[in-house]
Write a structure and sequence with these properties.
It is a single chain. By secondary structure, the protein is an alpha+beta fold. It has a single domain, classed as Protein Transport Mog1p, Chain A. It has five helices and 14 strands. Strands 6, 7, 8, 9, 10, 11, 12 and 14 form an eight-stranded antiparallel beta sheet that branches. The protein has a four-stranded mixed beta sheet with strand order 2-13-5-4. It has a two-stranded antiparallel sheet with strand order 1-3. A hairpin with a 5-residue loop joins strand 6 and strand 7. The radius of gyration is 18 Å and the shape is globular. The two termini are about 30 Å apart.
């Protein structure tokens, strides 16, 4: 972690005071292996998944703005509702609404992998992650893909393999892992794409994205929002 986390009492006092999408294109001859690797990695049973729901998976991040001290001299990008800390060599791609000029999603791309970040408003009592997982599972099944729920670094995560057609009509597969982090009235979804989403890939290719997700800071604000609505971000200064 590259900043200090406030003591819980301090955080409470402060609160009261007021892309181009990255694809893992697996050729048809390798598709069975990709699906088998996904299936083999899912070893958690229903009881373990229920236990996972009760853990504090945000202990090491992502964080709420009121939970941390950003005093360290670290190069960050402030997108208003999200503060991110890229590393050298990370390429950032922004999905921007042309009418409002607000950022809908930000994707960090590195080598043959990427991590897409999307922020949602959430109910104070939580529970949005389970709803979003259920929707994503239904979408994967409708697309004739495979999807599993497993316990990952940030709690219950989705591991998906979805069929796609390549530019020459060849059969490809879109592989991803989806992380959900629920904070105070917000939910941050991270979708790991490309090579890093494969379970057979070396840890050194996934670790930078795990750290990137941990270091995200959410500044939701106090505006009322409908749970499930996307919280947009502001374009960085100098961006057009």
């Amino acid at each position: 972690m590259i900043f200090g986390r406030k003591r819980r009492s301090d955080a409470v006092e402060d609160a009261e005071a007021g892309p181009d999408e990255v694809l893992a294109a697996v050729e048809e001859n390798d598709s069975d292996q990709a699906v088998d690797d996904l299936d083999d990695s899912v070893t958690e049973d229903a009881e373990q998944l229920l236990d996972a729901e009760d853990r504090d998976w945000r202990e090491d991040g992502p964080f709420d703005y009121d939970e941390v001290d950003l005093g360290a001299e670290v190069a960050r990008i402030d997108l208003e509702t999200l503060i991110i800390t890229p590393w050298d060599g990370l390429n950032l791609q922004l999905q921007v609404d042309e009418e409002s000029r607000r950022v809908l999603a930000v994707t960090g791309v590195w080598a043959e992998s990427g991590l897409e970040l999307v922020l949602f408003a959430a109910p104070a009592v939580g529970g949005l992650a389970a709803d979003l997982r259920a929707e994503a599972i239904a979408e994967a099944e409708q697309a004739n893909g495979t999807v599993e729920v497993a316990v990952g670094t940030f709690g219950p995560e989705l591991r998906r393999v979805l069929p796609q057609s390549g530019p020459k009509g060849e059969k490809l597969f879109h592989v991803s892992k989806v992380w959900y982090a629920e904070g105070p009235r917000w939910l941050l979804r991270g979708t790991l794409l490309g090579e890093a989403a494969l379970d057979t890939v070396a840890q050194d290719k996934t670790a930078p994205f795990v750290e990137f997700f941990r270091n995200v800071v959410v500044r939701r604000g106090n505006q009322p929002m409908v749970p499930g609505d996307r919280i947009t971000m502001r374009l960085p200064e100098g961006a057009s």
